Amino acid sequence: MSKLQRNSFKVRAFQRAMRFANALAALPNKLVPAPFRLIQIGSAYWHSRALYVAAELGVADAIGEQVLMSEEIAESLNLHADYLYRLLRMLASIGVFEECAERQFRNNKLSYCLRCDSPHSVRDMILLHNSPEMSRPWFEALAPSLRNGEVPFARSHGEELFDYLDHHPNFDSLFTRAMTSVEALTGTAYLDDLDWSGFDRVIDVGGSSGSKSLAILRLNPSIHALVFDRPQVIEEALNNSEVNIEATLRKRISFAGGDMLVAIPPAQSERDIYLFFAIFHGMGDAQVEKILHNLRTACGQHRPTIAIIDCVAEAQGIDPTVASFDMQMLIGTQGRERTEAQWQLLLEGNGFALMEIVSLRTFAKVLLIGLN
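User: That's the sequence. What structure does it adopt?
Assistant: Structure tokens below.
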């Protein structure tokens, strides 16, 4: 397999910037007295809950492009004026919203990303991670699970996350929207860090609404895409496709529903590329092994390229973002953020070889794997 890394200089610049950002984020641990710093960390959920409530109530949307008194915002949302003022004052103190004068607020760079109409909106991600469904396991099940090895989400809700999604359509819809909003968090520039010129078709396994496939198609006019996900996710994607997909792309993208733990769409040629965007980190090794078995079957007589886009955790001195994702996986699933050695062990044990790791201008990497 030829090397598929692109934009090496830009990727290295991004990595240096992230290391610098992590160093800045660690400064409070060095500058703030230790007892006070622990209290800051221990009460950080006050900020996250205030942010969640502001997102849930649509405060940023209510403000829009205006500068408004807190009483005006409260009236438009039918809220208690003084309580809303104190919430906004707290959020403005940490940089979310701007207090222009006493009790007068407007959106700023951060709160703009809470607006539904913002192309950079992460509102659904905030709502998902702070929802009662995702918060309960952190508060009530983490300590017991550390003793017995249960998945906290399953302990709190009586079933695994993806089973719960199947049985709770509203939460499932929020989950799908949040996964789509990852694009607002990471952008799509990193997709150009992989050389797509050798491929005719993308098979996007677990591709949700198809947003990443569409970004790839925009970068590569000759490629087609097949988006594969749970039937209800695909149904929602098809319902929205007439509105969200440009006419020039509709003939180049198709959708199929199914269960990757049962079967995966078959390869048609060596110029296919299977994509698994942030899929395996949410699964235990046994589930990954089932998918890899299905993938071998799907490859048939062909030898397509297989790309796993996921984090590669450091064995020591882990990146704080990767460590946080790993804990969220522990809370909700049997998955984890795997080290390179763990990836290799899992792949080689199931008949695959790790061919190349492509670095990206985001926190994930591309693991290019092939059949042994």
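The beta strands are 67-69, 98-101, 104-106, 201-205, 224-229, 253-257, 272-277, 305-310, 352-359, 365-371.
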